[in-house]
Design brief:
The protein has 254 residues and is α/β, with parallel strands linked by helices. The chain is 36% helix and 19% strand. The chain has two domains: 2-160, 3-Layer(aba) Sandwich (Rossmann fold); 167-251, Alpha-Beta Plaits, CATH 3.30.70. It has helices spanning 10-18, 25-30, 54-62, 83-94, 116-121, 126-138, 149-162, 167-171, 185-189, 214-218, 244-251; strands at residues 2-4, 23-24, 35-37, 40-46, 64-66, 69-76, 100-105, 143-144, 174-176, 195-198, 201-204, 224-226. The strands form four sheets. The protein has a six-stranded parallel β-sheet with strand order 2-1-4-6-7-8, with helices on both faces. The chain has a two-stranded parallel sheet with strand order 3-5. Helix 3 runs parallel beside helix 4 (83-94). The longest helix has 14 residues, at 149-162. The two termini are 21 Å apart. The protein binds flavin mononucleotide (FMN).
Amino acid sequence: MVFYFTGTGNSLYAARQLESEPVSIPQVMRGTQREFTAESIGIISPIYGHELPPMVKDFLRESTFNTDYFYIIVTYGARHGGAAEMAKALCDECGVRVDYINTLHMADNWLPAFDTDEERALDKRIPEQLAAITAGVKARKHGISPVTDADRTAHQQYLANVSGVPEALWQNFVVVTERCVGCGVCTRVCPADCMKLEDGRAVHIPGNCQDCLACAHACPQKAIALAMPEKNPNARYRNEHVTLQDLIAANGKA
Ligand SMILES: Cc1cc2nc3c(=O)[nH]c(=O)nc-3n(C[C@H](O)[C@H](O)[C@H](O)COP(=O)(O)O)c2cc1C
């Protein structure tokens, strides 16, 4: 059994390499079932600020996993900042025994710092990384991927940098512009039901926003901007192996 969270498809693509029909965490979180039993259970998720997204943390906190082998693969774009260690600490806090944690370097979809057109063109040796990860999971590998002092320092620096950012900014991070034509794609790719249509236009509802940027990346009009400058406001990203329909099935309300 493989669970995943995704904004732009990287983690869904990786999850599919581990199991043909992985289970969407947003869909699970819309329901009530929180106990899962399988021979092997994995979670594939992006990291945000080196940590798991809030919804994935809640999923871990609320769930019981009955399994012989539990693992987490975090996808990231530039710097994992010791994410494996922090995911392990979270599992310990939640009473979840975790056997294996690894990181997977993919395209970075964080628009304030990265031009996703450039990211798409980089060769991050994803097939090789995925082959090693799937072989590791198949062989029931144990351990967490190495974390250095430089990673830990990077995370502390990140925390210092964002310490002055008000929570309200993260909850109002996406801005619907006048280019919106009310097509509703954003409402269907949002994993947290934070977009709705009002008078033929998309409206962002703060409160449960995961900052995954699914809405901004998927908007066909590029009508969703950010509340801070972007590296390239014209660049938008979706993993090349994942369709818009896949993202809607993953994140949208049934
Ligand atoms: C809010 C946010 C924060 C991010 N923080 C990091 C980070 O700290 N380090 C990093 O390397 N990538 C970071 N990224 C990039 C994503 O982790 C990466 O692109 C991931 O593979 C996206 O997965 P997805 O396509 O399944 O959504 C961040 C992306 C977002 C949207």
